[in-house]
Amino acid sequence: MKIENTKAQMRKGVLEYCILSVLSKNDAYASDIIKILKESELIVVEGTLYPLLTRQKNAGLLSYRWEESKKGPPRKYYKLTPLGQDFLKNLDQSWIELTASVHKIIKLETKNNSKTTEK
Amino acid sequence: MKKTVKVNINGYIFHIDEDAYDILRGWLDALNKKFENEQGGDEIISDIEARVAELFQEQINQQKEVIIAADVENVIKIMGTPEDICDDEEGEPKNTEKTYFNESSKKLFRNPDNRFLGGICGGLGSYFNISPIIIRIIFIISIFFYGAGVFVYICVWILLPEAKTSGNKLEMQGERITISNIEKTIKQEFKVVKSNFNRWTQSDGYKKFRVNMGKFGKELLNVLKAFAKAIVAIVGFSLMFSGIISFISFTITYFMGGTIAELSIPEITNTSLKLSDFFELFPMTFSSTLSIIAIYVVVAIPILALVYAGSILLFKYKAKHTIITLTGLGLWFAALIMVLIFGLKAALHYKTSSSYTNSYVVENVNSDTLYLSVSENFIHDNEDFFFKIDNLLISTEDDKTQFFGEPRIDIMKSLSDQIEIKIKFYAHGKTTKDAIEFAREINYNWTQNDSIIEFDHFFTLPDNTKYQVQSVRIILYLPEGKSVYMLDGMTKVIYDIQNMQNMWDNFMVEKMWTMTERGLDLSDSIKIIPIDTIPDMDTIPVIEEIGNN
Predict the structure, then answer these.
(1) Does residue B426 sit in the same domain as residue B364?
(2) Of B223, B386, B395, B484, which residue is least crowded by CB atoms under 10 Å?
(3) Which residue of B8, B33, B83, B96 to mutate against A (max A Cβ within 10 Å)?
(4) What dihedral angle (degrees, nearest 10) is formed by the CA atoms of B201, B207, B209, B211?
(5) Domain identity same for B455 and B503
(6) pLDDT tens for residues B336-362?
(7) B218 lies in a domain?
């Protein structure tokens, strides 16, 4: 098992949550989202985003509209639907819980570790 | 120099290198495969394509108009491999270092690196992970089943793409075959076929197919060309070979006499005889050296032309073909005209036919019956030593030409009461005088001993006579009431004797015939003792009269 794989798995889980978060602030098109996600180093390869967007759209969490761009063909602008907003709230809640749990476990482990080293 | 392909990605036009195109194509195909069974898969692909277009747009400018392989690889690095993009829900462990085409299962390509014709056997070989030679052997065997293999091969040739890029080649090598892989492959292939068909009809896959068709056509043309070349070479070789053999055997036979070739000139059964000697048998003009050479040239030039044509087909050398051809044609025509002149001249020697007749009265016959027999005046053991022209046998043993001819004997009713024999000698010549002269040279003998007449089997001609269509006709005139009995040997010389029974010559021998008012009649009242009971030829056959008497 490679570290890269594990990391990718972890990122994958939170990626959907992050996309919804990004879109909750502003409507955006794919490249905008990618920019933000890349800056926060949440995605390694851009391609990952597209299936997620489409799936979320198909699940009714997102909708999109076509917007003319200055250069090139029109762009797809994604927007959260009310369903998506509910979904996001739900996720916000579970994220808080999850991080708390994870922190708890990490702290517990460090305690255990320190105990074993003390012995 | 590189060929570029013009592609439309999400409304942008890009010029893209062929190898770069292949990489991109492979990547998109792999992506398509990943998403084809997902709802909205097409949308994902078109979104990704839009992004790819954007990325390409960033990479080209006024100095750099063409997308190269490195650009495509860069974009793939940014976008990720199909495996990165498509996160399978099962969460299979992924080796991110693997390139996309290694993950996709093995593909069938025509293998350009291991090709004999279209590289299909090579491609099949790497697909099944066995030596292409085995496939080739199977293919060759299949040809013998009504050429099934050829048809299949051509179909496969049209349908299978060639593994052009390194990506294709890796795909061709693919993963090892395992049961699950095979299952996966079959499932995927089925889907691919389904979606490919849809894509094909509208997208550039169709164009690709047409390009493939064009390439196939080109390759087929090359193969046909190679076949044509091979056939030309074979034809050339056989022409040359047969020409040389004919030329040698003709020359040897013509001048030296030989047994290499049996020339099928009618009636010439002699193969150990020089053909040029054959002409010696004819009047002078034909036997002159010039005419012999002319005849040789007339025959030899077409043979040499075969050799020449064959050699051109085989070796394709450059020479002054026109001059050679014209010279050959000219020579041939000159020789032909010469032969015609000689022939005409020779024909003049046969212009007139004439004959002279010797008549004899057969006397001192102390019987009412005449016995006819044939004496063998020339015994030859080997018929191969003879020409036979018409009914003339020509022997050329020991540099001596000898003619032997069989006479034709007829029996007719005598107008008087005498037995008469007329011998007519025939010959052709320039003039009637010549003809008669030639006829006089014919030597023929017959003997009479009481009622027995013995005819020589052959007439002869003096040594080194020319052929002048000599012949001999003998007519025996038999008075009414007289009978004739022919011994067995007479079949060789009797010719078309009229008789009341309309019996054929061959059956007329060993029977007693009586001349009646209306012609020869079979005397049925006379019983003949069969010839094999006669102890000696000199003995007169014993005749027993029965019946009416």
Answers:
(1) yes
(2) B223
(3) B96
(4) 170
(5) yes
(6) 898 888 888 878 888 888 988 999 988
(7) no
What's the Cα-to-Cα distance from B73 to each of A43, B117, B265, B415, rounded to whole Å? 18, 33, 81, 123
Domain ranges of chain A: 3-118
Q: Which neighbouring-strand residues pair with B410?
A: B475
Contact B44 A50 (CB under 8 A): yes
Whole-number pLDDT of residue B162: 72
The answer to whether position B211 is within a domain reads no
Residue with tokens 């080109």: B218
Interface contact flag, A2 B51, Cβ < 8 Å: no
| Closest-CA distance of chain A to residue B79, Å | 4
B335 shares its domain with B375:
no
Residue B54 and residue B76: Cα distance in Å, rounded?
13
Q: Residue A14: list chain B partners with CB under 8 A.
A: none
Instruction: Kindly give the pairing relationship between strand B446-449 and strand B452-456.
Output: antiparallel
Judge: A54–B40 Cβ closer than 8 Å, yes or no.
yes
Return the DSSP state at B397.
G
The confidence score (pLDDT) of residue B350 equals 83
- Among residues B66, B88, B104, the one where a domain terminates is B104
CA distance B504 to B148: 63
Number of domains making up chain B: 4
Quick one: pLDDT at residue B503? 82
Choosing from B345, B371, B396, the residue where a domain stops is: B345
Interface contact B39, partner A, CB < 8 A: yes
Q: How many CB pairs under 8 A join A and B?
A: 77
Instruction: Decide if B297 is inside a domain.
Output: yes
Q: What angle (nearest 5°) sits at the alpha carbon of residue B540, between those of residues B535 and B544?
A: 95
Residues of chain A neighbouring B88 (CB-CB closer than 8 A): none
Looking at A12-21, B295-304, B376-385, which range is the least confident one?
Answer: B376-385
Residue B467 has phi, psi (to 5 degrees) of -75, 120
Instruction: Note whether B122 and B156 are within 8 A (CB).
Output: no
Tell me the fold of A3-118: Arc Repressor Mutant, subunit A (1.10.10)
ipTM of this complex prediction, to 2 decimal places: 0.78
Instruction: Answer yes or no: do B189 and B236 share one domain.
Output: no
Taking CB atoms and an 8 Å limit, are A47 and B91 in contact across chains? no
Q: Strand pairing of B452-456 and B369-375?
A: parallel
Q: How much of chain B exceeds pLDDT 70, in percent?
A: 70
Answer whether B93 sits within 8 Å of A57, measured CB to CB: no
Amino acid at B192: V
Residue B440 pLDDT greater than 60, yes or no: yes
Question: How far is the C-alpha of B196 from the C-alpha of B187, rounded, in Å?
Answer: 14
pLDDT mean over B463-471: 82
**Are B340 and B363 members of one domain?**
no
Provide the pLDDT for residue B524. Answer: 62
Q: A1 vs B44: CB contact, 8 Å cut-off? A: no
Nearest to B80 among A46, A57, A76 (CB): A46
Smallest CA–CA distance from A53 into chain B, residue? B44
B333 and B368 fall within a common domain? no
A contact set with B (CB within 8 A): 1-2, 4-5, 8-9, 12, 30-31, 34, 44-48, 50-51, 53-55, 57-58, 71-73, 75-76
Q: Is the predicted pLDDT of residue B96 greater than 50, yes or no?
A: no
Residue B399, domain extent: 352-545
Nearest C-alpha neighbor of B334 from the set B300, B304, B294: B294
In a domain, B209, yes or no: no
